[in-house]
Amino acid sequence: MKVIRTICELKNELDLCREKGKSIGLVPTMGALHAGHASLVKRSVNENDVTVVSIFVNPTQFNDKNDLMNYPRDLDADCRLLDGVGAAIAFAPEVEEMYPEPDTRQFSFAPLDEVMEGPFRPGHFNGVAQIVSKLFYAVEPDRAYFGEKDFQQLAIIREMVRQLGLKLDIVGCPIVREEDGLAMSSRNMLLTAEERTRALKISRTLFASLDYAKEHTLQQTKAFVEEAIKATEGFCLEYYQIVDGNTLQPVEQWSDSDYIVGCIALFCGKIRLIDNIKYKEVR
Ligand code: PAF
Q: Whose CA is nearest to atom 1 of ligand 1?
């Protein structure tokens, strides 16, 4: 696997691949890779001739300086993982390479970015759109792979691709969970042992709510999750929203949509975790 640091070198390398008719898959990441990322890379390796994995902790999507500072980084471990799953290129630029000058672009994804993460993380999705669009211009992939754990991000990236008229497929991949059910996240490694045990309550509550939802209204199910999370010491709930999976707007009743997803964000101690569960999905 090649580790590339500059856009110029990356473009030269990928031009050679395209000249040979090779398809390109991109997996954008912020590093601190785990089995969830590995599953995205494996999918890309299966579906493309060349897989590029970007590793870049993007400063413009952090609205909390401490969060940016404490975000886990371990390029050597990341490269070992990527080597093992067949990635061809790890693209690991410095901040100056991606932002030689401040990116002043302002995106609007309303109403997708006005709900859930939107009010709690002002500017976050604008920063995500800035970096992901830069990566798409640099790599020009045929397909790009994103996890459904960041459910709102995935919908917004699809919308960004539509707005910018880009020609690539966005592939959403299912959440990968630890054996005990906790959704995999680079932030999990920041949890203390006690918080890690407590964090289990998130997926357990969401899965329990699937059963509960069979016999209860949507509002009762929402309250079931909210109450269980609020009753857990050490948790601070930001939101639990049950939304239409396409528009991300809250739904009132189970009959309101064929695609209904519950999305949660909370602090477990100082660590912010998100997760989601599908109540209804008609494919
Ligand atoms: O999901 C992430 O890890 C990041 O938001 C992304 C898509 C790599 C952009 O920095």
A: 29
